[in-house]
Design a protein that fits this description.
Repressor involved in the biosynthesis of the osmoprotectant glycine betaine. It represses transcription of the choline transporter BetT and the genes of BetAB involved in the synthesis of glycine betaine. One of its GO terms (biological process) is negative regulation of DNA-templated transcription. By secondary structure, the protein is an all-alpha fold. Helix content is about 80%, strand content about 0%.
Amino acid sequence: MPEIRRPQLVEATMSVIDEVGLSNASVALISRKAGVSPGIINHYFGGKHGLLEETMRTVLRQLSATSIEHLRAVDSNDVTARIKAIVAANFDGYQVDSKVTKTWLAFWAQSMHDGDLHRLQRVNERRLLSHLRYELKQVLPAEQALFVAQGIAALIDGIWLRGALNPKGVCPEKAQQIISDYLEKQLASHSN
């Protein structure tokens, strides 16, 4: 697959999912939106399923790169700032774009019924928990670090879901404020 086409097809996939939903996002519609032949999608991705998987891999790579960028911008010894950087990456501009949030929702729903997509979702989930736990274990016992990491992950997913279903979308500032409040209360209760 020529590298120039891959981003074009990923973008077209997200746009079509945004416009008509996953169930109505046919190879024909996606190929028309991308300005390519449906045969290209079938040849390189094996159809809609493979293209959805590649689209989510692209979104996840972007999330990973954004997380690294946010983490590099904060002191490696400031646990609170590092947790907030991880949270901020999850609510970064690209990740809260309407077509990306709808693609996430389609992916989450489909991953319950598809082994390949489910594995991709599990990798993403484990990565988030691992990053959060690593930081939290600097200041909390392992069991408490896991508990707080799970709480933060649940808040990220819950706020994401509510925002994705809201016509106004996800409000990154409000999301970060809610999660920061939770984090600060968890850290304060442990230090008392």
